[in-house]
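user: can you give me the structure for this one chain? tokens are fine.
assistant: on it. calling the predictor now.
[tool input]
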Amino acid sequence: MKKDLGHYRKAYTKSELIIENTPDDPIGLFKEWFNDVDASFPDQEANAMTLSTIGLDGYPKNRIVLLKMFTSEGFVFYTNYDSDKGQAIANNPKVSLSFFWEGAERQVIIKGVAEKVSGSESDAYFNSRPRGSQLGAMASNQSHKIESREALQNKLESLEKEYEGKPLQRPNYWGGYLIKPVAIEFWQGRPNRLHDRVSYEYNENTGWIKNQLAP
């Protein structure tokens, strides 16, 4: 079967990214873009991002996860440490994050190194989650084969009964990762495919260095 998509076209005309107008720190620009998207497109998950890891089989793998915090140190998300992504990070902590905000015609690509956040930080976030999400994290042996959907549902129901009226504790196999960026690239769609690209690379001696890239 063949489906030709060569005729798919979209003109990018909404904004521009001029390197002279960008801050020296990329986290500041990320915050500006994120807040703009979050306010302008409330029906979209502005914090949805693609996490790319190198699996134990040597292949890259991408999946959508949700950004839960960003600071001057980097970007935080939470997951099961025994999942595919958790095992991949344990083997090779070099990862990539990417955001594509279609409505704003913007993309951000982040290269960085993942490390676990502290237990207290993971506890605080776990305790802030809805009870159903807490129980779901406890019930799911993420990425591993299961007998059936029914077996998973039965496990959840068993946990609901076991912990009825009791507080829940974060499982030690579940928690957060902080991605410390070493490079961040900002992309703004422009007409005629002459897009604006500004990259920041971190140098331990001089800090962030930015450059304009050809589209």
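assistant: here you go. Residues 68 and 173 are 18 Å apart (CA to CA). Helices lie at 26-40, 84-91, 119-128, 131-139, 149-162.
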